[in-house]
Amino acid sequence: MDIDSTLAYRPLWLCFRVSAPTFFGATSHWVYGYMLLLHSLVTVMFPMHLLLGQLLQGGPAEFFKNLTMSLSCAACSLKHIVQLWHLPHMMEIQTLLKQLDECVQSDEEKDYYRKTLQKMCLWCYLLNPPELLYLAWFPFDWRRSSFHYALAVGYQLVSILTAGVQGLTNDIFTPLTLCYVSGHMHLFGIRMSRLGFHQTPGIEIQQELKACFQDFKLIMRLHELTRETVSLVQLVQLVFCGTNLCIIVIYGLFYVEDIASMIHNIAFFAIVCVQLFPSCYFASVLAQECERLPNAIFSGNWYQQSAEYQRYVLIFTQLTLGLLKRPVMAGELIELNLNAFAATVKMAYSLFAVVVQAKNNDN
User: Fold this and answer.
1) Among the listed ranges 65-79, 138-152, 158-172, which one has the minimum average pLDDT value?
2) Which end of the chain is more exposed for a tag (fewer CB within 10 A), N or C?
3) pLDDT, the chain, mean
């Protein structure tokens, strides 16, 4: 079975071709005009008109009911802008994955890829939550005529579809890439643990170790690019998910008056958690694979080799320990793992407790 880690990225690149065609070689004036309209009317203005709608229309109940969607769209736009800035790094990540795919040789590695890695990457798509449409502000009275109403609805439909395309990339790219990086780290550990036990005829053990050094250079570069690419995106996601969770709880406790609305809020709460969980989970998996790598190296048949080979293995092990000092971070502030997910939920509860205390003091 051929290994192709880039196959899962194809829907994401199709979305990027829609939102950033100039990066892929389109240079006509029409394309630049299209990008200007797209990002000014959708990426910038769409979250602004939703947020203004919360401030200028409706009472407290409507405010909390629709604020979660407004913040989600604002977060989506911010993450999309960061991803556009890091598009060259994301392209290099895909190139490195192709090179690492060529290093997979043994049946054990291919079996792990087919039974484990592919299924984990599929989760990244299945857990992507949908976007919803809520109350917003327009610089004109959309109730004045059918034309104004159609214009307002048409703008929101186009904007929400475009926001969905942007959300597909910034919600899936991080967990998908972390999943592949951890998977290739595991496959590399399998190769290292077999080194010296199943020697290929005609190839010296030092040559095999040198090839592993080259593979490790690719993994190091892939790991560093991933850290840099997802850092700001995940910081935005952590902050906005925590804020949304707090708002959902406040609205559910103080303003919901029927069972249907309560079920909707419970489902929305679960969706926000599911949106954040995959990135934190696969970051934890990657950290575990980094911790296991030195043990995988020492699991090889190094003790029956020459003193020079053993020295190289010792140096190699020291290099792998450096990965433990560079975990995946959210904005260089928060280490991205399951603890960060738990801390975000706790932050939402803390904000909720502050609001409840303030409400009690007013009464």
Assistant:
1) 138-152
2) C
3) 77
Residue 205: CA atoms inside 13 Å, Cβ hemisphere, count? 20
Q: What is the DSSP letter of 132?
A: -
Type of residue numbered 362: D
Tokens of 100: 């690492």
- pTM, two decimal places: 0.72
Evaluate if residue 202 carries a pLDDT over 50. Answer: no
Question: What CA–CA distance (Å, rounded) separates 330 from 17?
Answer: 26
End-to-end CA distance of the chain: 68
- pLDDT over 50 at 131, yes or no: no
Q: What share of the chain is helix, strand, coil (3-state, %, to 5)?
A: 80, 0, 20
Whole-angstrom CA distances from 199 to 15, 196, 206 are 45, 6, 11
Reference 84, options 18, 19, 37; nearest CA is 19
The answer to whether 82 and 145 have CB atoms below 8 angstroms apart is no
Token reading at 114: 């087919």
